[in-house]
Design goal:
With 44 residues, this protein is mainly β. It has no helices and 4 strands. It has one domain.
């Protein structure tokens, strides 16, 4: 089984997700080809 590690950068303006798989780091495309999305927090 392969090991994979992930991280979330939840910034004040933008957020992104990265993974390390097979010793290689890459950013995850979150929406289309975009690697960052505007950050938002909602609560009720």
């Amino acid at each position: 089984m392969q090991s994979a590690f992930g991280g979330i950068d939840f910034g004040t303006s933008n957020s992104t997700v990265g993974v390390i798989r097979d010793g290689r780091a890459r950013l995850v495309a979150l929406e289309g080809e975009q690697h960052t999305l505007p950050s938002a927090v909602f609560f009720n």
